[in-house]
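Weekly modeling sync, notes
Attendees: S.R. (lead), two postdocs, one rotation student

Agenda item 3: backlog of single-chain predictions. S.R. asked that every request posted to the team notebook include the full sequence so nobody has to chase files. The rotation student volunteered to paste the first one in as an example of the format we agreed on. Action items at the bottom.

Example entry:
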Amino acid sequence: MPLGGAASMPHGPESAGQAGRAGEGGEAEGGDDAPAAPTGLLCELMPHPELTAIVDSTPEFAFAVRSPRAFETLQAFQILVASSGAQLDQDHGDLWDSGKLHGQSSVDVAYAGAPLLPGKSYLWKVRWWDSRNRVSAWSEPQSFHLADQLGVYSTPREPVAEASLRPVNVVELEPGHRFADFGRDAFGWLEVDVDAPFATVLQIQLGEKALEQGIDPLPGGSVRYVSTQLNVQPGQHHYRVETPKDAQNTSGAAIRLPDSLGVVLPFRYVEVEGAKDLNSLELRQVALHYPYDPAASAFVSDNEALDQIYEFSKYSIIAPTFAGIYVDGDRERIPYEGDAHIQQLGHYSIDRDYALARFSHEYLLDHSTEYTEWHQHSVMLAWTDWMYTGNTESLAHAYDRLVADKTFEDRVTESGLIDTTGLEDLVDWPAGERDGYELEPINTVVNAFFCRNMQQMADIAAALGKADDSARYRAMSQKAIGALTQYLLDPVTSVYVDGIGSTHSSLHANMFPLALGLVPENALPKVVDFVKSRGMACSVYGAQYLLEGLYRVGEADAALALLTSDSKRSWVNMLRAGASITTEAWDLEYKPNEDFNHAWGAAPANIVPRYLLGVRPLSPGFASAEIRPQPGALTHMSGVVPTIRGSVGVAWDASGATPELRIDVPVTMSIEVAIPSALSDTCDVLLDDSPAETTLNNGVRWLRRVGSGRHRLSCPTAVDP
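Predicted structure, as returned to the notebook:
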């Protein structure tokens, strides 16, 4: 994916197309000017539905369409579903020919043809008509497979994939003693190809942390190190190195892996001793993770540390998916709702696949964990799934459970806030990362989540047609937000205290209301100043909300400084410690049993796309979205952000005489663009070289209702007098 220099416009993976065929019903003939064929086909939210079994007898389809023409619209589309490739090759949908369906929706299109049979495989393809009534070529076909039993609600996801990787570097420490670096930590196992003249024994060490030119045998915490032996027979043979199970991550609530996989271990480095007289020795790291497309997203800037942190965090979202579900890392291998939400946001920001996040959320509905806020994160998982997919099936499935178990309505006091006496409030973890937070029965962090949950439940109920519930939740949210201000915002300091009965103000009591959009306008300056004054006085989990809060209110410089800090409490420190997957804590100093493979530490994977580039949904399924770039001190940055409707490109360049912003928007999406102050403060902005009509809101200048295509926001060209 070409990203070029700062001013080059990134294009998404859906940008390629084919010439259109002859149209029907009076539309213009296809040709060189025909719209590009649809790409990015999804069935049941998966790019590769043929790899699993679908239980929905009326699956939903989605596709992406792009056009180089600015403000292009999707006039209509046509879907064919066939029982064989031969039928589809003849443009014959023997099971469903939708005909020319008019409308803007390219997502959540439900199958409406003849009954699909259990255990059978089918194919589908799609084409579209643009605003000039020109028809595209058909998309490439996509196949999908139905389960033997249909009608029982279940979210399918693709199976975990295996990748056989060579070392990026091998060093001969001494004759027969080799040290191999595979470049990145991965969950899997080691395979060895050996040509031996005689039987021998190899001593093999695997680990996540290096010590000079070797593996650190005492890495500390829960960082992995294993030493084992491999019995080698004469001749050429292929071996898998067996390592012992860890009782802690293979018992209790841990996610069990199939016996056929054997023991899966995270490692990056390998040492082999005893290989002196071998004819040949080849090492392979077999890495397991959920399938993903690394080219679906991208980010580059003029800050090298930031680019490294983005790639580090991006990989950290995918690497721990070896179990086919979001887990908290290797030490426990247990799904947790708060961890899952950060991983969900990251996964949606780096790849165009929505099934694994939904599967993980629904698993947690039946296997919930103990913390109060983790229950509250189940509401956030459900709401975020809907906003990114536009599909309400999971909402409908989860609704009663959310109402009964996740909203804490039974704990609402007369004030409108909830009392969590007897529950286990988390605030942050470990406990030493709470900035001195005083846990009270009615406390600020839990009630900030409660306020936001009530807003989200109002939206969810409305989406499901439950108008009375929606009105009730909306009223509860308004009362709770008012009470949060009345009882927990100190009238003297204008910052939040930790709870009713406390006079202490922590970072957490203020960053969560800030991140969740609950701070009243008149208190914002004091709350923001207080949050900035505390720095990174929170864990890697809390960093998600600290950065979100700062970016929400336009504090881009402060947020960028935290993102790129090289202090001990930073992602730079994780890299400095030798991690290639984000760690469970900033350092062993803060959590002595931390591991080197925790996706909850990968907040930059979603913060960079959602807040630095600024691409976020405004309505379900990205029908409308905002692009609010906040480059701060960056001179240039560009990136690609996947959405269910296609990728969004953003490029900022402030290296010339005047800054400029370029965006690339898929068809069927309406965009609102916030113009960075470095541009809007410079001139009366042009959109595609024409004067732009903008509105000012809370100090930010917005360009409303921008349509699809490639757009350039710039200053007028200077004219000599």
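Discussion: group reviewed the output briefly. The first strand starts at residue 39 and ends at 43.
Action items: rotation student to repeat for the remaining queue; S.R. to check formatting next week.
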